[in-house]
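Bit of a strange request maybe. I'm writing a small parser for structure token strings and I need a real example to test against, not something I typed by hand. Could someone generate the tokens for this chain?
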Amino acid sequence: MVTQSELAKQLQNETVVVRLQRHWFNASRKCTASQNEKAAKTFGAKGKRFRGQKELVDSTDPEYRAVASIVRAMESYWNWMTVPFGAPGKRLLRVALAEEYKKQDELLSAKLIEAQAALRAKEDQLKAKAEEEMGELYREEDFEGGIADKFGWETTYTQESPPDHLKKLHPDLYAKAEAQIQAMYEAALNEQVQELATQLAETVDALVKQLGPKPDGKKMQLKECHLDNLETFFGRFKALNFGASADLDQIVQKAQDAVQGVTTKDIKGSGELKDSLHETMSELRQKLDGMIVEAPKRKMRVKD
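Reply from user aminoacidic:
Good idea to test on real output. This should exercise your parser:
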């Protein structure tokens, strides 16, 4: 049987640390002290009792939304293709998936450049609208550096390992650093299990709710996406799982077996199949609840 330590070493050897630093135009700003003071007087209040916020840009503007959506898409892709690595902004990517990841990064970067050009051409118009609608709240310095150029991301790839020179100069420090890094990868295995279990639980839960009886007597609204989301998860699990939890492996296998070859048409056409699938998925959902230690900091998005 493979030990946790051996799995952690495998994780270290087969992955690279990917750091994503996202840049964003802060469209919502706090009002200055003088602006808060003036606004507070409207309500007969002291300035220190009032904290205002102003919106610099109409976030529904098509060019603004296009740029913002590309940056969000890159962040979502980074989350989807990687597994946790403890520190914010750092996640682990399988070396085998690195080329695929880089191609998508380059594709979205090219789209961002094109969208930024369109937004940049409209910035004067957006600023003029802001000045007209914001009145005394408008400050030119809020737009310093432009709007479009504030968006973007930086991707860096690193390997976590102690400096080679320490091995000869300070063998004990090298060993200590190596042990600390080993512990980081062992913790990453647990984080990975938690993230995958939570994602599966959310996906299974959405299916269970549609398969179960409705209190209002209405028919279930089972959609193809409820099964598609499971298939999408199975693909991600296969690509990112390192086998750190035999229990999770078994649950995933049972979920796969339960929906293998099943369509929404099959479920809607057979009460027996619907009830059987509801029972199986409900049991798996309960087992997943027992595995999840705490709520994750972030949720994976699934189709509605």
